[in-house]
Amino acid sequence: MPANKPKKRDADANRDPISGEAGSHPVGTGLGTAMGGAAAGMAAGAVGGPVGAAIGAVAGGIAGGYAGKAAAEAIDPTEEQAYWEENYAGRPYFEEDVPYDTYAPAYRYGWESRTKYADRSYNDVEAELQREWWESENNDQLEWEKAQPAVRDAWDRIDTRDQARVRESQRKSRK
After folding, report:
1. Are both 88 and 60 inside the same structural domain?
2. In this structure, are residues 123 and 53 in contact, taking their beta carbons and an 8 Å threshold?
3. Residue 95: is it exposed, middle or buried by C-beta count within 10 angstroms (0-12/13-18/19+)?
4. Which of 8, 40, 137, 148 is the most buried (most CB within 10 A)?
5. Distance CA 92, CA 173 (A)
6. Who wins on pLDDT, 127 or 13?
């Protein structure tokens, strides 16, 4: 980072509200909790009836919360924001009169959506992403047609990085 660039604000560290540690991921934790709780509740309900479903939902929610937090922590929002702020001007959709702050919500939406839809491809969810973009306040500064390439860029960056991690993990396990 150039010496003349100001240091990021402490708020950019995405601090955990309880522990104060950098890199809090409440969305990932919440999604993991909901998904894990639902899955475990259904499984336990099939075996133990309503009481089993309730116990399974709680246990699954706890396990799912940890899994969701781990998945979300694989994406460091502070790192992603810094990367895109540094590199957005080199992207093919860059427009000289559009500052980074205008694109920032699109990049954030792209990397957060990649976590939310981890088991689906971009092409499978693009229509849903567009609908969600229009329903959010994000479109106040940037319409979907201009946001979409930045959303896709951030999504693809996470995909590429995750694929490299999987290949590295497989390579290490073969040794």
Report:
1. no
2. no
3. exposed
4. 40
5. 38
6. 127
162 CB burial (10 A radius; 0-12, 13-18, 19+): middle
Tell me, yes or no, whether 121 and 134 share the same domain: yes
Same-domain status, 58 and 133? no
Q: What is the pLDDT of residue 1?
A: 43
Question: Which range marks the domain in which residue 67 is found?
Answer: 22-73
Please give the angle made by the CA atoms of 83, 121 and 67, to the nearest 5 degrees. Answer: 75
Contact 147, 139 (CB under 8 A): yes
pTM beyond 0.70, yes or no: no
Three-state SS for 68-82 is HHHHHHCCCHHHHHH
Tokens representing residue 94 in the block: 């860059």
Same domain, 32 and 101: no
Torsions phi, psi for 21 (to 5 deg): -70, 145
